User: Fold this.
Amino acid sequence: MKMLILISLVPLSCSIYGQEAKTVKNINEKKVYICNSLTSKSYHYKKHCQGLLKCKDTIRKVSLKKAINFGRVRCGYEARTEEQF
Assistant:
């Protein structure tokens, strides 16, 4: 009986690990836009986001991981727009 329980848990742990690996891969590959100013605090999925219109510096395309490492958070305009759908 104990062996049956252990065998049934192995696929579950593999599928959970697979999801974690996919998430890490998505963060490294997903590209976002940031304003290159010192006061900018957000990252944006769309280059023409309303939040980026205020940018007085250059707009850079970086990985989501890098944007998060820079201390950026998701743009509030895009988060609100997504909730409407």
Notes: Helices lie at 2-29, 64-69, 76-83. The longest strand covers residues 31-35. Strands lie at 31-35, 42-44, 59-63, 73-74.
